[in-house]
């Protein structure tokens, strides 16, 4: 039995290393894909089909004409976005951002290639960030743990997917303060479906109320903060991510996870402020700490968070 568990962990770890390499692509490219899409939508709004009111008329009314050349700007913007080379998670092939060197397959083996290249581009020798192998390593370890804990089963697979999505969201939110719907919403629905199929062990009613409670609790905090200060304290992506965590762990896990995320977020935020490490606007994204709380709940259990904080 022990031998089988370690074999499962080894297989899961290898799969995790490969998935982690792909996650680096997602983390880098998905925000750029979103920005392209937003520009395309903006162009479409500025150039409505014939006979339909433009977005300017809808917002400001027909008696306030749009600035000159508004539609021409929309046409030019749309043409510029359309003319861009294809860019998605698969195309183009990965290249060095400094010299354009196309990364060959043997330069893209998780962790090993980075070590063999001594953390530098094979062509221009520009340093390659530590984060790439660390993402691969973290994904490999989490996948290994899922395979060790649940085996090569549906449960092991879905919890590995849970880990991969949280790793992506952690770094995308830290880099850009974006939590893409293309990640948060599948995580939410996957949690509800996994509950319905009995994979997570969370009753469906608890998962549904967890999703509702996760979303509404942060939405109410957001509204209260905005009412008192006139500022937005967090983004809607945080509501969706917390709703997803509620779906995976049930409503009873919401308090431990929000406590952990808040405490760690406050500590890191204070540390960054003291070291002048805060970005412009003096804010720290909250999503990474929610994701960390979710991964902690997966590995140790939600109630372990309360015990670690002396509340259990």
Task: Explain how this protein is built.
The mean pLDDT is about 90. About 65% of the residues lie in helices and about 0% in strands. The longest helix is centred in the first third of the chain and has 45 residues, at about 1-45. It is globular and about 75 Å long. It starts with a helix and ends with a helix. The protein has helices spanning about 1-45, 55-60, 70-80, 110-115, 130-150, 155-175, 180-195, 205-230, 235-250, 255-275, 285-300, 300-310. It is an all-alpha fold and about 300 residues long.
Question: What overall form do the CA principal axes indicate?
Answer: globular
State the oligomer.
Answer: single chain
Query: How much β-strand is present in the residues?
Result: under 5%
Task: Please give the share of residues in helix.
Answer: 55-70%
Low-pLDDT runs = none
Number of helices: 12
**Whole-number mean pLDDT:** 92
- Overall structural class, as computed from helix and strand content, comes to mainly alpha
Calculate the terminal CA-CA distance, rounded to whole Å: 33 Å
Major β-sheet annotation: none
Number of strands: 0
H/E topology pattern: HHHHHHHHHHHH
CA-atom Rg in angstroms? 23 Å
């Amino acid at each position: 039995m022990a031998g089988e568990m370690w074999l499962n962990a080894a297989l899961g770890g290898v799969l995790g290393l490969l998935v982690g390499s792909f996650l680096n692509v997602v983390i880098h490219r998905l925000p750029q894909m979103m920005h392209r899409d937003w520009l395309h939508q903006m162009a479409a709004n500025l150039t409505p089909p014939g006979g339909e009111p433009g977005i300017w008329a809808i917002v400001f009314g027909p008696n306030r004409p749009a600035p000159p050349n508004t539609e021409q700007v929309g046409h030019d913007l749309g043409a510029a976005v359309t003319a861009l080379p294809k860019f998605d998670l698969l195309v183009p092939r990965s290249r060095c951002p400094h010299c354009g060197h196309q990364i060959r397959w043997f330069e893209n083996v998780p962790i090993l290639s980075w070590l063999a290249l001594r953390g530098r581009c094979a062509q221009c020798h520009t340093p390659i960030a530590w984060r790439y192998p660390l993402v691969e390593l973290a994904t490999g370890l989490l996948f290994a743990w899922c395979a060790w804990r649940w085996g090569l089963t549906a449960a092991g697979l879905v919890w590995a997917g849970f880990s991969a999505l949280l790793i992506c969201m952690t770094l995308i939110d830290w880099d850009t303060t974006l939590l893409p719907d293309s990640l948060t919403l599948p995580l939410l629905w996957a949690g509800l479906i996994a509950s319905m199929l009995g994979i997570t062990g969370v009753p469906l009613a608890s998962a549904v109320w967890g999703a509702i409670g996760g979303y509404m609790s942060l939405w109410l905090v957001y509204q209260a903060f905005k009412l008192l200060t006139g500022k937005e304290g967090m983004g809607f992506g945080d509501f969706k991510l917390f709703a997803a965590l509620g779906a995976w762990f049930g409503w009873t896990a919401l308090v431990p996870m929000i406590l952990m995320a808040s405490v760690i977020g406050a500590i890191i935020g204070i540390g960054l402020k003291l070291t002048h490490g805060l970005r412009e606007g003096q804010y720290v994204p909250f999503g990474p700490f929610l994701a960390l709380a979710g991964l902690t709940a997966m590995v140790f259990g939600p109630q372990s968070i309360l015990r670690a904080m002396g509340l259990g």
